[in-house]
């Protein structure tokens, strides 16, 4: 995948992800409606490839404002990833040479890879994750909208232990998938299904779209470094 294609695809996917978030806020809340309306306009400009650097800047500045307004990420980790993507895209447009454009976009790919690896490493060091107890607690006690019939999984310790190790193994080994294009594509499909399951079971839908928005950078990076 060429740099231009990966950059543009990232912009489109990011705009769609942020547009969904802004529209949901406008529908369900009356707070900061002006800010989210501005974000919708910026997303429209980004989708239309109109004044792209200014649209990215507008989205970045409103994201920083929302960080201050809500005293932290409004949507948790998905907001952090969104700001990272905006930052890297903005730098890639403002960079004075192709080399620095590549470096800005490569930084996004590296951070995306580390997001999986570090998450897996943290789980690996946690005895509750290694035993499956962490997943058991999620199904048994969490406030996420898990269906009642799924709460029974909290007692299936063997299944949850196996699921825990599958998640840990996938995340820790994720950097190795960069060694070949087929392995990376397979890993991204698995990761998408993982985020989709989290969206369905726990309502974490914004993680799904924002992480997928960063995938083109990883496909480009793999081809650039290992292809």
From TrEMBL:
Bilayer topology term: Multi-pass membrane protein
Main location: membrane
InterPro entries: HTTM-like, HTTM_dom
Keywords: Membrane, Transmembrane, Transmembrane helix
GO (cellular component) term, any one: endomembrane system
Subcellular location per the Swiss-Prot or TrEMBL entry: Endomembrane system
SMART domains listed in its UniProt record: HTTM
Domain of life, per lineage: Bacteria
Transmembrane intervals: 53-70, 82-99, 159-178
Segment forming the signal sequence: none
Domain HTTM-like: 1-223
Protein name: HTTM-like domain-containing protein
Organism: Ascidiaceihabitans donghaensis
Lineage: Bacteria, Pseudomonadati, Pseudomonadota, Alphaproteobacteria, Rhodobacterales
């Amino acid at each position: 995948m060429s740099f231009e294609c990966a950059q543009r695809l990232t912009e489109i996917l990011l705009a769609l992800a942020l547009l969904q978030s802004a529209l949901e806020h406008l529908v369900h809340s009356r707070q900061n409606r002006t800010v989210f309306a501005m974000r919708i306009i910026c997303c429209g400009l980004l989708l239309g490839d109109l004044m792209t650097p200014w649209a990215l800047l507008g989205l970045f500045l409103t994201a920083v404002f929302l960080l201050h307004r809500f005293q932290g990420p409004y949507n948790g980790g998905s907001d952090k990833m969104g700001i990272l993507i905006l930052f890297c895209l903005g730098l890639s447009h403002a960079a004075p040479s192709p080399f620095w454009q590549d470096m800005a976009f490569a930084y996004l790919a590296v951070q995306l890879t580390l997001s999986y690896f570090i998450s897996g490493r943290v789980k690996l060091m946690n005895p509750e994750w290694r035993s499956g107890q962490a997943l058991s607690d999620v199904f048994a006690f969490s406030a996420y909208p898990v269906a009642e019939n799924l709460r029974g999984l909290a007692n299936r310790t063997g299944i949850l232990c196996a699921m825990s190790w599958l998640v840990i193994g996938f995340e820790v080994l994720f950097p190795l998938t960069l060694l070949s294009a087929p392995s990376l594509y397979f890993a991204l499909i698995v990761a998408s299904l993982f985020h989709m399951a989290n969206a369905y079971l726990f309502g974490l839908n914004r993680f799904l779209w924002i992480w997928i928005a960063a995938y083109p950078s990883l496909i480009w990076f793999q081809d650039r470094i290992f292809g």
